[in-house]
Every structure is written in structure tokens, then in C-alpha cells.
Specification:
Residues 23-276 form the EAL domain. By secondary structure, the chain is an alpha/beta fold. Helices cover 50% and strands 20% of the residues. Strand 4, helix 5 (127-137) and strand 5 (145-150) form a beta-alpha-beta unit. Bound molecules: ligand C2E and calcium ion (CA) (3 copies). One calcium ion (CA) binds next to strand 6.
Amino acid sequence: AKRARSGSCVFYTHDMEDDAFAQLRLESDLRRALERDELSLHFQPQISLANGRVTAAEALLRWQRPGIGMVSPAQFIPIAEETGLIVRMGEWMIDAVCRQIAAWRDASLPVVRVAVNLSAREFVPELPAKILDALARYALPPSALELEITESVLMSNSERTVSIMQALRDAGLRLALDDFGTGYSSLSYLKRLPIDTLKIDRSFVRGIPDDHDDSALARAIVGLAKNLRLSVIAEGVETAEQAAFLRDAGCDDMQGYYFSRPLPAAAFTLILRTGQPP
Ligand code: C2E
Ligand code: CA
Ligand code: CA
Ligand code: CA
């Protein structure tokens, strides 16, 4: 019986990813990942079109899962959101980002702003105090952080969310609306949102310059941002043609594989030394 049982275990590991069992396993592994230091950060440079220099970075979570390898945040963030684990994960993230910015500062490297993604469930009234505590722990100015939120964050409890956003912005943090154009927020609503930046979603950038609709939409988003006096950044820029089109359209900053993939902290440190993408 024992033998059969261990046999079936082997079977399960084969099909693990298709299984409800695998989901549970992923969930409990994820819970432990926080305690066992399996999470890390990557930094993807954001390039200013005015001078071609790296002016900021987006911090992206990475999970080195033992025996499996690197798991994409696209896979584990939804589970972390469902289970509520995202709250502790977000706290880890904010602390790790602040610690890294402080390490760069202490090495006399330029302090670039780092953007951090926030999920809807992290938007609790204690959020501003938690973030300000983390900044204070490392003696960093609030301008060191930008918070990226998607339109879906606003859908769950928009009144409460907007007042939390306002508190964060009043404290001096920058706010960006991520994946812009993919959500449902009306344009009149945009006017009332306490934000600094629109981030054009990769799905529009992908079709530039050949797809007429994508190109027109990307240009329209840049125009909209300018008229609302917001800064505008494009994500997912992969080609020189896309970069040139967006530059001509008046986009302020860009991010994407054309400039650099997300990098481990050590590799991003080299970029900070020169101010140029690799
Ligand atoms: P996102 O915020 O839209 O982040 C951009 C994603 O696009 C990243 O994937 C990045 O690696 C990828 N990317 C960047 N440049 C290019 C490009 O030129 N071409 C293509 N095809 N892809 C590009 P990643 O790192 O796998 O992250 C996926 C998503 O996971 C993020 O999407 C974000 O929503 C979420 N995420 C990552 N880190 C965190 C975090 O700390 N907290 C929360 N709440 N969500 C996070
Ligand atoms: Ca983002
Ligand atoms: Ca995005
Ligand atoms: Ca996107």
C-alpha cells in the first residue's frame, strides 16, 4: 500500500500544475516564501525622452520557488490577492524597495524614483502610515516612491480609495495610473483623480506603428495626459519604431525591452553609475 501511495505521489508531481492540489501547494509555498526569503526584486529602468537618461525604475516582484525555479508574478500575484497574502507581501515589497534605494544613496549613487505596484486589497486606511513609516525607517523623502495603481483598484471602493490616494499624494508620494486604457474609468472621473502620471498599457504600444487604431489610441492618450497636465509614460516598448513614434507623439518617458528587461539590483546598480540604459 505504501509503495502504491508513493507511486501516486510521483504521479501528482507530474501533473501538479493542472491540479486543485497544486493550487493549494502553491498557496502554502507562497505563504512560506515570505518567511524563507525566496522573494526578490527586479528593477526595470524608465527612460526620459528629453535626455535619454534613466530617471526612474519600476520594481517587480520575483519568486525563486525551490525545486521549480522562477515563478512569474502574473502567476502568483492573483493567488496572493485571493488569499489576502498580498498585504504582507506588499509590506515586504515596500520595505525591500526602501532598503534598496537607501543602499544606493549610501553608495553615493543618484537617488532615482522607484515605482511600486499596489493591488486593490492593499488600499486600506492604514496604507499611507505604513508607507510613510517605511520611508522614515530609511530616512527617504516621499518623492523616492511612485505608486502604480490600475483602474480596477478604483472599482472596488472608489470613494475610500480616492481618499487614501489623496492622503498619499498630500504626503508627497507620486501616483501613476497603470495599464491605462484597459479599464472602465470614465474620462470625467480622471479629472478628479489625484494622480501625476498616466501609464499607457502595453496592448496599445504593441501595434505601433503598423496598427492604425493602436497608434491613434496611443497618440490620443498622450494628448489627454498633456491636456490634463499629467506626465505620460509608455510600457512595453520593444522596438526603435515604437520609441520614435511615442517620442514624436510627445510621450515623456518609456519603459520596455527595447531599453532594458527588468534587472536584478546588482545589474541596475551599474546603470545608476552611468545614468544610461545598458
Ligand atoms: P505590470 O505592472 O503591467 O508590469 C509590467 C510587466 O511587463 C512586467 O512583467 C514586465 O517584466 C513586463 N515587461 C516590461 N517590458 C516589457 C516589454 O517590452 N515587453 C513585454 N512583453 N513585457 C514587458 P512581470 O514582472 O511579469 O509582472 C507582471 C505583473 O505582475 C505586473 O504587471 C504587475 O501587475 C504584477 N506585479 C509585479 N510585481 C508586483 C508587486 O510587487 N505588487 C503587485 N501588487 N503586483 C505586482
Ligand atoms: Ca506596473
Ligand atoms: Ca503596467
Ligand atoms: Ca500592462
